[in-house]
Amino acid sequence: MKPTRRSFLRGAAAASVGAAAGGAARASSDPAFAEIQPWMQELGDPVDAAPYGMPSEFEAHVQRKTVYWLTADPISSINFTPLHELDGIITPNGLCFERHHSGAAHVDPALHRLMINGLVDRELVFTMEDLMRFPRENHVYFLECAANSGMEWRGSQLNGCQFTHGMIHNVMYTGIPLRLLLAEAGIQTAGKWLLAEGADAAGMTRSIPMEKALDDCLVAFKMNGEALRVEQGYPLRLVVPGWEGNMWVKWLRRLEVGDEPWHHREETSKYTDLLADGKARRFTWEMDAKSVITNPSPQAPLTHGAGPTVLSGLAWSGRGTIPRVDVTLDGGKNWHQARMSGPSLSKSMHRFYFEFDWNGQPLLLQSRAHDSTGYVQPTKNALRELRGTNSIYHNNGIQTWHVKKTGEAENVEVS
Length: 415
Ligand SMILES: Nc1nc2c(c(=O)[nH]1)N[C@H]1C(S)=C(S)[C@@H](COP(=O)(O)O)O[C@H]1N2
Ligand SMILES: [Mo]
Fold this sequence. Notes:
Blueprint: H1 5-21, H2 31-34, H3 38-41, E1 77-78, E2 99-100, E3 113-118, E4 124-127, H4 128-131, E5 137-144, H5 161-165, E6 168-177, H6 178-185, E7 193-198, E8 205-209, H7 210-215, E9 218-223, E10 226-227, E11 237-239, E12 252-258, E13 273-274, E14 280-281, E15 290-295, E16 307-316, E17 324-328, E18 336-337, E19 339-341, E20 350-358, E21 363-370, H8 380-387, E22 400-403, E23 409-412
Parallel strand pairs: 3-12
Antiparallel strand pairs: 1-2, 3-4, 5-6, 6-9, 7-8, 7-12, 9-10, 9-11, 13-14, 15-16, 16-20, 17-18, 17-21, 19-20, 21-22, 22-23
This protein binds the ligand Nc1nc2c(c(=O)[nH]1)N[C@H]1C(S)=C(S)[C@@H](COP(=O)(O)O)O[C@H]1N2 and molybdenum atom.
């Protein structure tokens, strides 16, 4: 039946009654509204009370968090984006997860240089000022560490989407297309690979195939409009859209053109998947399509009881956009198409919602992403059949949250 305007209005009225029954709209008897609060009686802060603004003090719990037992020390370590506290698709700069191999380097931009050497016609060394004279572009991309969800390979472990899925952020970068800088140096015919090197104490390096370097990589200096944060590689980072986070070298200081990959630590003993037959998958750069329900989730239980409920989550693919996400409330017996909301950009996070009437009974929540290549996010068991149980990296299996009658949620696996 085609909804008429009348039936739509009746529907809207019913929805608002539902909301009242759910707890809203008792204003006149609610002391929080009826009484005059201190902030209504006093003047507020002057302008400039915080020359660099911070979130409300009531949001102080919204923080990146680490899991202390995961790494031996906090210098070569990781923390996680609080995905359950965010909405939309952009990660605020102060909440972007951090992964450092030897701590976050504080680099003086006046002393920072970017060198291009190797199989080039002209070896070049750029100052930050030099770089600001190249044409720049703006793009929103997710960065996901290949180890995201790695702790869940053998079964459900960490209780919260921040910890199971929070090695990801989604930021608008302003940067120079890498191909412009390489053209300035002149790549020789034999130049098929690029080594990117960081200025941190780890001097972290990765080999990148030239096709990718010339395609969509950026040398970025801004994130979400402002300078890169120290934690994200100030003053320069490599952006490698859709590819594993490890390749996005921070504090970028050198790009060497070569004729073959370098086989350094981060592309041999690390970021390599040991399969059941003893062989290893290597150079698994592209991040497969993945999704997670951020609300409700273990750190964000349902506190309102039965009735109208908003389910929300994130989906992304290193190969394009996410035209569709399905969600199930019963562990995969019935699937429903979620509602996508917000910009659908290639290699960016996408936001989805599913509004439903919770009957107050236990739920087994899952989401399943479809990407623009037609690929569908697999179950964890399907992944294990292909790759065994030795893997850590590239776990894009379907996540399950068990919501109890109390509204509390727990990390479980149904696959
Ligand atoms: N120079 C340098 N670049 C680096 C790293 C590092 O330790 N040093 N860590 C890498 C890894 S493993 C990841 S997942 C991403 C993390 O980026 P973020 O700290 O902005 O989240 O940066 C990558 N680039
Ligand atoms: Mo990483």
